[in-house]
Amino acid sequence: MTGILAFIVVFGVLVTVHELGHLIVAKRSGIMCPEFAIGMGPKLFSYKFNDTQYTLRLLPIGGYVRMAADDMEVNPLNSGMRIQLKVNDREEITHIILDDKHNFTQIEEVEVVESDIKDKMTVKALRLHDNEEVEYKLAHEAYFVQNSELERIAPRSARFESKSVLARFLTLFAGPAMNFVLAFALFTLLFYINGKPTEDPVVGTVAEETPAEEAGLAEGDRLLSINGTEVDSWDHMSAIIQNEGESELDILVENDGEERTLEMTPMVNTTELPDGETVDQLIIGIGAEMERGTVSPLWWGVQQTYEMGTMIFHLVVDMFISIFEGTFSFDMLNGPVGIYKVTEEVAAQGILTLINFTAILSVNLGIMNLLPIPALDGGRILFVLYEGIFRKPLNKRVEINIQLVGVLFVLMVMILVTWNDIKTFFL
Asked: Name one Pfam family in it (predicted).
């Protein structure tokens, strides 16, 4: 149960922050956003505010911001349909009433002849009280009314395509960018709580029932050499221990100006990975001294986010190279099932470990969404950049076909990755 709750919270936070980035920048750019959804599937809860329906859906996987766009405008009006119109002083339509569940007065009964809410923003209708055919223009703020609910009709100026290349680029980039911001915030929080391990080979903690405790290593001890090899840093010390194997170590330490030599034999620490594999490592049972500060954790948060992003980017590049080299394996990827199993394992190690894991996932989500795959933010950014470079949008039919191929590719990969995760963890 803890694993399920941790997965829902972690995934929910990552998706909410990502989509919130899109929403904030879209609204600042003047793009209308009819829906902001967390989760997929049937609606559990909804709240409408400022022309945006905020919804929580049943399946805690994914989310989206539905932005007003030419392809997203659904016209419920058909020729011959009888509707009611509310118009303003300029004879512009403010409300198109689709049923009788309303309290509007001074409305006109009409029969639709033809309508265009995508380009012309007009409705041609036959007024029933005088049988005169009239072409109405839609007001800048116009609504469909059905079941006592208002759904705003997006004016052309509030649609995604109407905005500048820069505004559209920033709107699409804002989602991944917010994931990097979240990672920075979480890493910084952890540095404020825990501090940052120093690079110096100085003992900060000694674990119980370990070779270090039995030999008498203490907090504050600086490791000077191991088996005669001078120790330069914490990583250097760890490398020496691994290279020496399970043999006895003569460790020269110094504390408060006094030196002493301790003898100990490393123990094997076996870590089981979520996929069932195990990793063995030689340890003596010490933790690094922690550095703390008031402003420093902010800079450390930036560094950690950059370093983690660089590492993940290199892994992604290596993965794509492996495809062409013929060494690719779906074991390199994790789908929702794999992420759930890892989250379950991490949650069992405590809240701070889970926060660190969430930060890493957030960086990963940001980078993956920037990949130039049509179904992802990176693919859509490519279309926008194409328009910015060549001063004209890509042919609509070509763009739709590329988007379709991208969606099918992502779906196929998700199915294969999910099946591989199921085989790995459950079969």
From this structure: PDZ_6
pLDDT at 404: 87
Strands 222-226 and 229-230: antiparallel
CA distance 23 to 20: 5
- Report helix, strand or coil for 46: strand
Residue boundaries of the structural domains of the chain: 74-153, 198-291, 296-426
Position 241: which residue type? I
Considering only CA atoms, which of 218, 356, 241 is closest in space to residue 287? Answer: 218
Sign of CA dihedral 294, 295, 301, 307: negative
CA angle 135, 140, 142 (to 5 degrees): 75
List the structure tokens of 282: 């030689």
CATH class of 198-291: mainly beta
CA-closest candidate to residue 291, choices 349, 224, 204: 204
What pLDDT does residue 7 have?
Answer: 87
CB-facing half-sphere around the CA of 398: CA atoms within 13 A: 5
The residues annotated with a catalytic role in the active site are 19
Name the DSSP letter for residue 202. Answer: B
Dist. CA 182–CA 18, nearest whole Å: 9
- Identify the helix (H) or strand (E) that includes residue 417: helix 396-426
Distance CA 359, CA 343 (A): 12
Per-residue model confidence as pLDDT tens digits over 237-279: 999 999 988 889 999 999 988 999 999 999 988 876 555 567 7
Instruction: Using the structure block, give the residue that is written with the tokens 């979480």.
Output: 186
* Calpha distance 246→199 (Å, rounded): 24
148: tokens are 């006592």
- In a 3-state reduction of DSSP, which class is residue 321? helix
